[in-house]
Amino acid sequence: MRHISADYIFPVFALPIKNGIVTIDDDGTILDVSSEHEFHDPTAKVERYEGIICPGFVNTHCHLELSYLHEQITEKAEMTGFIKQFVAKRNTFSEQDVQKAIEKAEAEMIKNGIVAVGDISNNNSTFAQKAKGNLIYHTFVEVFSMDERKAEDVFNKGLELINELQQLEETLDIKLHASLVPHAPYTMSEKLLMLLNQEAMQNNSLISIHNQESETESELFISHSGKMFDSFKAMGMDVSMIRKTGVNSLRSTLPFFKDVSKILLVHNTFTSLEDIKYIKAEAAKWKSEIYFSTCPSANLYIENALPHYPYFVDEDVHLTIGTDSLASNHHLSILDELKLITEHYPFIDLQTLLKWATKNGADFLRLNKLGSIEKGKKPGLNLLRNVDLENLHITEFTEVQKLI
């Protein structure tokens, strides 16, 4: 048993506790959370730290399999430029390089206080690392095809990857959560979307989809025009297969999943207030609970833009934090993402930021033991040092130390 204290404990599900004390058992399960005035064991040895203790971070969007592309793609090339460079470089590395990068990237996440990851997989390259059980993963096996004729084949290949994970799970007796998901609105045929919706409904699966990461994305659906449309055409893609709906990419795609229990919209760099209001209004009619994932470092890396976070705060939606991949980020650090948000929107309070970084992600991923410091949970504990304790703000000097 350990008793751990700091200047503030942020349970996240409740208000911060000044000079609070967290009592944990030997496996990290929370036994009690109290203020120093409520703690009644004068013989107990209390570990005291300067700073803030919060739950372990939950990274809701990562592409661990792309770690080998670290610093290989030019910044601020916009989505079309990013895709071109990715396609040109993705097959130029050995399997040994790929696996070494995956292992190193996972170690970086652990060091940075991340305890669970919503990870995108287009192949099985990360499966062996995930099977080691160093982190809790929910693997989003991602599929895409604009060609209606290929929908069933693409869908079945995705199911094969799900089955491979399930076989690993049974063989190694380790939980490897997974679901089959779409890539992005502009890479999906209606048939493939319907197959994924049916699969998600039958298995009560989580859906994740990239959303409004590029400003030109919606022009594809509204008018078959714009920079992305022209780029795809120049790359030799059959742009006639892109669904022309007359409305933006979000509204062209989200209704396909109206009966799915939980949906994660990822990036949302160019999501408008009207879009968020639309989502809230439609979700109230549907069976779906909508969450958002923001990856600010990647948004700046690719598009040199950030979501307008006040929209998400004012509308009180479920926002979570992701890192995206090392192909579009210099680090895999949730704290760095929070610093970036704070730099641009300093009025967003730390309680809100930490809820985005912990509890909301755990809630979406159905990881009930994570996300908050409360009795019976096993969330991991992070110490945030060099914090502005007077105003309860993180600063550019704030560091994270994984305690549990």
Please outline the helices and strands.
Blueprint: E1 2-9, E2 17-18, E3 21-24, E4 30-34, E5 46-55, E6 57-62, H1 78-89, H2 95-111, E7 114-121, H3 127-130, E8 136-143, H4 151-172, E9 177-182, H5 190-203, E10 206-211, H6 217-223, H7 227-234, H8 249-253, E11 262-267, H9 273-285, E12 289-294, H10 296-303, H11 309-314, E13 318-321, H12 334-344, H13 350-357, H14 359-364, E14 381-385, E15 399-402
Parallel strand pairs: 1-5, 6-7, 7-8, 8-9, 10-11, 11-12, 12-13
Antiparallel strand pairs: 1-2, 1-3, 3-4, 5-14, 14-15
Helix pairs in contact: 4-5
How many helices does DSSP assign? 14
Given this structure, which CATH class of the largest domain is correct? Answer: Alpha Beta
Please name the fourth-level CATH homologous superfamily of the largest domain. Metal-dependent hydrolases
From the alpha-carbon coordinates, what is the Rg to the nearest angstrom?
21 Å
Domain count, please report it.
2
- Structure class: alpha/beta
Q: How far apart are the termini?
A: 12 Å
Shape: globular
CATH fold name of the largest domain, please? Answer: TIM Barrel
What does this structure look like?
The chain has helices at residues 78-89, 95-111, 127-130, 151-172, 190-203, 217-223, 227-234, 249-253, 273-285, 296-303, 309-314, 334-344, 350-357, 359-364, and strands at 2-9, 17-18, 21-24, 30-34, 46-55, 57-62, 114-121, 136-143, 177-182, 206-211, 262-267, 289-294, 318-321, 381-385, 399-402. The protein is α/β, with parallel strands linked by helices. It folds into two domains: 1-55 and 371-404, Urease, subunit C, domain 1 (Roll); 57-370, Metal-dependent hydrolases (TIM Barrel, Alpha-Beta Barrel), CATH 3.20.20.140. α4 packs parallel to α5.
